[in-house]
Amino acid sequence: MRALLVTPLVFVSCFSPAYEEGGLACGPGGACPGSQTCRADNRCWSGTGPTVVFVERDAGAEAAPQVEAGVEHAPQVEAGVEHAPLVRQVGESCDPANVGLPNRSDDCATGLVCVQGNMGSTCFKLCADGESRLTDPGGPSAVVCPLAPSACDPVLLSGCPPFWVCYRQAGVVGCDPQSGGQRPREACTYSRDCLPGLECVAGYCAVTM
User: Fewer CB atoms inside 10 Å of the end CB: C or N, the chain?
Assistant: First the structure.
């Protein structure tokens, strides 16, 4: 008697996973799965997510922000979650892109530039008669206005945002996202060139009260 051979039918279909909007952080080089792309909050979104807005600059000249069609510079609300504005203002943290390349850009508002300090990157206002700041460590510099004065204490080193330092420069007290390593009696240009608690006086770091 012959055995009956039964061959099961196998149905093969393509599985396409659904990724949560903004649920995944961007990978190296801004990599994201599926049709999602890396956006301003460093999360993966599809076409409904926030758009990265950079201000492009060429040889010091400012250009208009590049904005995706139909997207405004305003907080977007999606599924009950409010996203932060995409254009950073003076004193706010920023994210430079293409650092060290000719097409370097950032997400600061028009008229501002992202300066990388050793305590984070911050938007500064461009000023013709301001002070020189390195936009990238060891890279090009930009002439910017100093940050606004604040009621911090340069002796107690208090009153500044986390990781910022309070300095006195030419009688004006304010917070700075950069701190140098010059010791007393060592040469300086700005108080931020000195160790915290010191002031640049007549070209040298000094202890002042």
Answer: N
